Amino acid sequence: VFDHLVRAPEDPILGVTVAYNKDPSPVKLNLGVGAYRTEVILYVLGLLHDQVKILYQCEFFSLILYVDIGRKPLVLNVVRRAEQMLVNDSSRVKEYLPIVGLSDFNKLSAKLILGADSPAVQENRVTTVQCLSGTGSLRVGAEFLARHYHQRTIYIPQPTWGNHPKVFSLAGLSVKTYRYYDPATRGLNFKGAIVLLHACAHNPTGVDPTLHQWEQIRQLMRSKALLPFFDSAYQMHSRLGFRKRWGECLVAQSYAKNMGLYGERVGALSIVCRSADVASRVESQLKLVIRPMYSNPPIHGASIVATILKDRSMFQEWTIELKAMADRIISMRQQLLMLYVVEYLQPLNHRALWSKVKCYHMQYVGSNLVKASGGANVGTPGDWSHIIKQIGMFTFTGLNSKQVAFMTKEYHIYMTSDGRISMAGLSLRTLPHLADAIHAAVTR
Ligand code: PMP
Predict the structure, then answer these.
(1) Integer CA distances (angstroms), 144 to 19, 141, 156, 351, in order
(2) PROSITE patterns attached here (predicted)?
C-alpha cells in the first residue's frame, strides 16, 4: 500500500551526518551537527610566543603533542554522578510521570531560565511543562498557540535553525520571517504576531543582540503588542540577554547542549502569564495538547537535571564543566583565526611516536590576537575576525553553498550548506585541514 511513496530527502542538518558516515575518507570531518566533542592534548613543551601564552595563560612550550582519540562525545562528570545517585536510590520507581512531567524539574527549570528572583516565578505566574528537549518544547508551545492565541502568524528570524519553519507550520501557525540583526527589523508593524527570538547564542549566526539592543527589541515588541517566544537551546553557553520585564511570553528550554543530555530529550516549556490563575488555566490546556501527542514525558533525563539543579555543589560542578566546554570552543575559534594570521607548518607525522600522535609546530607573531586579525591575514582574502567575534557553538563562516560543496567534495569536510560550522567538532589536529579547505574554497 505504500508503493507509491517517493523517497523523502534527508534532513538538511541531520543528513550531513548521514553523508559523513558514508564517506570512507580517513581525513573526513563532521562539522554539521552541534554536539560537543572532546579533545585531549597529551603534553606540551618548549617556549611560546606571547599570543599563545595569552591563549593558554601559560609561560612555556612551543611544541604541542596531540593525541587524537577521535573527538569523543562527552558525558559530564556531574551527570554521571547524578545518574549514580539515582541508581543507588532504591525508592525510585519507573511509574508514569504526570502529563506535565516532573514537578521539581519544572520549578527548577523556570528558575534557571527566568531567574529565582523573577517576579513571575515568585508570584506563581509561570506554568512550566517538561517536554521532549528543545524541539518538543517548541512544538508543544506552537500547538498551544495555534489553538489558543488570537494570532496565527509567527515571525522567525532569517536565518534561523533549519527545523523552526516546520515545527511551527505543522502545528498550524503561519510562518513568516524577519531579517535578523538588521536595524530595519525595528520597523516591524504586524500587530500582535508571535515573534521567535533565540534567547542566546543565535543559531546559525552566532550573533546576539547587545544588552542595549535587547532593550530596544523589548520596547518595540511591547509597543506593538507582539508576543515573544524565546528559544533557549544554548543557555549558559553565552550570556542570557533577555529575562527582565518581558511580561507574557513563552520560553522553550533544552538541556541537550548545556548538560550534554542530547539523546535523553529533556527540555521544558514555560509560559509566563499575567496571574497565577491564568497560569493554572494555561497549564490545564497544555495538558490537553500533550496527552494525545505522547501522554507524558520520560523520567530519566528530567531526574538527572533536577538532581543537579537542586544541589548547590552539583550545580557548581555543572557550571565548571560547562565552562570547560565553552572555553575549548573559544580556543578553537582563536586557533582557527590564528591559522590565518600566522605562519604554521603543516602537520608532521612523527613515526617515532605511535601512529595516532601528530605533532604541530606553530609559530606566532605579535602579541595581540584581535589586532593581528585586523589585517595581518596571510593568504586567505577577507576579514575573518567574525570567527572570534561570534559566540556559541557555531561559526557562520560566510562561505556559500558552492564553497561548502567544494570543501565536502575535495576535503571531506561536512557542514550545513549555509556555511555553518560546529566549532565543538574541531580539534588542534583538524584545524589546519579546515583552514586549508577554507583557503582553497575562497581562493579557487
Ligand atoms: N533551537 C535551536 C536554535 C537549536 O539549535 C536546537 C538544536 N540544534 C534546538 C532548538 C533543539 O534542540 P533539541 O531538541 O535537541 O533540544
Answers:
(1) 36, 5, 17, 61
(2) AA_TRANSFER_CLASS_1
pLDDT at 260 over 90: yes
- Domain 14-75+317-443 fold is Aspartate Aminotransferase, domain 1 (3.90.1150)
For 282, residues 6+ apart whose C-beta sits below 8 A from its C-beta are 127, 144, 271, 273
Question: Assign residue 437 a region: left if phi > 0, alpha if psi is -120 to 50, beta otherwise?
Answer: alpha
Question: Which letter, b or e, does each residue of 327-339 get, where b requires 16 or more Cβ atoms within 10 Å of its Cβ?
Answer: ebbebbbbbbbbb
Q: How far apart are CA 366 and CA 312, in angstroms?
A: 43
- Residues designated as active site: 161, 231, 257
- pLDDT of residue 349 exceeding 60: no
The pLDDT of residue 325 is above 70:
yes
Which residue, judged by its Cα, is nearest atom 4 of ligand 1? 233
- Residues spanned by CATH 3.40.640.10 within the chain? 95-298
Query: Which of 298, 297, 308 is CA-nearest to residue 259?
Result: 308
Hey, whose CA ends up nearest to atom 2 of ligand 1? 233
Range(s) for CATH 3.90.1150.10 in the chain? 14-75+317-443
Question: Who's near 212: CB < 8 A, 6+ residues apart?
Answer: none
What is d(CA 58, CA 283) in angstroms, rounded to the nearest whole number? 53
Q: What are phi and psi of 159, to 5 degrees?
A: -85, 170
SS3 131: strand
Higher pLDDT, 239 or 159: 159
Taking the centre of ligand 1 as the mean of its atom positions, its distance from the CA of residue 134, in whole angstroms, is: 5
